[in-house]
Amino acid sequence: MQPEADILGDRTDIERNRSAGDDRFMNRLAKAVDAMGTDAFSYLLDTAIQELVAFDNSMLFAYAPGQRPIGVYTDIASEHEAGIIVGKYVLGPYLLDPFYEEVRRGRVSGMAHLAVIAPDAFTETEYFERHYRRTRICDEIGFFMGLPGDVTAVLSITRRGGSHRFCAEEVTRLEKAAELVCAVGRQNWTELCSRFDLPATQVFSASEARLGPIEQTLISLKRDTLSDRQAEIVSYLLKGHSTESIALNLEISAETVKVHRRNAYANLGISSQAELFSIFIEQLSQMIAPGDEPSGDVG
Predict the structure, then answer these.
(1) Using the 8-state DSSP alphabet, how is residue 150 labeled?
(2) pTM for the full model?
């Protein structure tokens, strides 16, 4: 058994290293503040956060009501991987992103961990397969920043491949620093609203407007095929909710959920979520107006 004096010494070393990391974080953050408004800001903010926890990549997306998001920044070097994580994401799959769902619900501050906000069957979705597993992202944490013009920016840090997921202690360290990170980010990215200068491209009837964007897209796919309830349930499936979770959210029985899902699949002529995802993305691509291509720095 390790002597008590050695245990206390180990704890002292851990606390000392943690304190030194906090000091380095503040020093790096000060450099990021000095670089506000320059191309160096994002990199310097990343290096500050790296003093708290290690991560592999970062990215920043800006969201505005009724418009597709903008990929503002990413440090992903591979054009192929950046194309999946940023380029393809902003064309429609963002609608299935748990971080976007947080934005849609009105979140404009603080930090969120994917493991906490993702639905219970998220890792079984086609979206997870194509966006996370294909790019080897194993964990993600996002910082939310409400900006002028009803824009919300989300700065995400990710771990990939063989990296360990963020542990509870690391999440706690980031939570303590989140207010500072978000405050600095809000000041630097306050003008992002000026980049949303295109009109919304999706037009729905008054009865459809009360639904979410996923349900709207599904109904526009086959307007006389899916009922509002079927579209609602299918949207939950796409986002990663299990049958039980859908039943709890909609306050209906699990058997009723299964019946609606079975009827929706039959009406759409499909038999799997992979097929559902494909026709969902295809419909979104057809709804992109000329010139409504995504913009943003993916280098």
Answers:
(1) G
(2) 0.83
